[in-house]
UniProtKB/TrEMBL annotation:
The lineage of its organism: Bacteria, Pseudomonadati, Pseudomonadota, Alphaproteobacteria, Hyphomicrobiales. Residues 31-160 form the VTT domain. It is a multi-pass membrane protein. This is Alkaline phosphatase. Keywords: Cell membrane, Membrane, Transmembrane, Transmembrane helix. Pfam families: VTT_dom. The keyword Transcription does not apply. The keyword Membrane applies. It is found in: Cell membrane.
Length: 199
């Protein structure tokens, strides 16, 4: 379990530390959130800790999205587009990706927000165009919270289940992470191929 020792200082701060980590994940996407959540799940020792971590990460994810919403609302449409064009590449947000997220809100706002929290890249930045468009905030916050809960709980429980299994958690966690990354790459490639074929 030496691989999990990286989380020891963070877990020492308890609920607040995990909330802060979840907020930070919304602004510094160094690696996929599902890997972070799965590793956190593997570091949890009991069901009570699992429940607390689910609540803490959901609160942090929602708070991070609210921060992006507020930034978008403050910037406004023209300034947000300008910032994305200049600096988006540093946060892995291309102008085309930003436009697609903005256009998604032409449909049902609540369900776009909720489902967006279940898509790896989209879940980080979807709140920015939501703020730019000044969507109804209570609806946005509720959808974000529900989507974050579903996403976070799934991978935290997966990590916790791996730890509780009779197999080597490091090896099982490694192969589970590989499978998740491959699945994400496969889905992204399939979408790209589909779009090229039906242009």
């Amino acid at each position: 379990m030496d691989t999990l020792n990286w989380f020891a200082p963070l877990l020492g701060y308890g609920f607040i530390g995990i909330v802060c980590l979840a907020v930070l994940e919304k602004f510094v996407p160094l690696f996929p959130s599902y890997l972070l959540l799965m590793l956190l799940g593997m570091a949890i020792g009991n069901v009570h800790g699992l429940v607390n971590t689910i609540v803490a990460t959901t609160a942090g994810s929602t708070l991070g999205a609210i921060c992006w919403y507020s930034i978008g609302k403050f910037w406004g449409a023209d300034h947000a587009v300008s910032i994305v064009r200049r600096y988006g590449r540093y946060l892995f947000v291309s102008p085309q990706f930003y436009d697609r997220m903005t256009n998604a809100y032409r449909r049902n706002h609540f369900w776009v927000t909720l489902s967006g929290q279940l898509i790896p890249a989209v879940r980080i930045y979807l709140a920015l165009p939501a703020g730019v468009l000044r969507l109804h905030f209570p609806s946005f916050a509720a959808a974000t919270c529900i989507g974050s809960l579903l996403w976070n709980a799934t991978f935290l429980c997966l990590g916790y289940g791996i730890r509780a299994s009779h197999y080597d958690p490091v090896k099982v966690g490694f192969w589970a992470a590989i499978c998740l990354v491959c699945a994400e790459a496969l889905i992204a490639s399939s979408i790209a191929i589909y779009k090229r074929a039906y242009r």
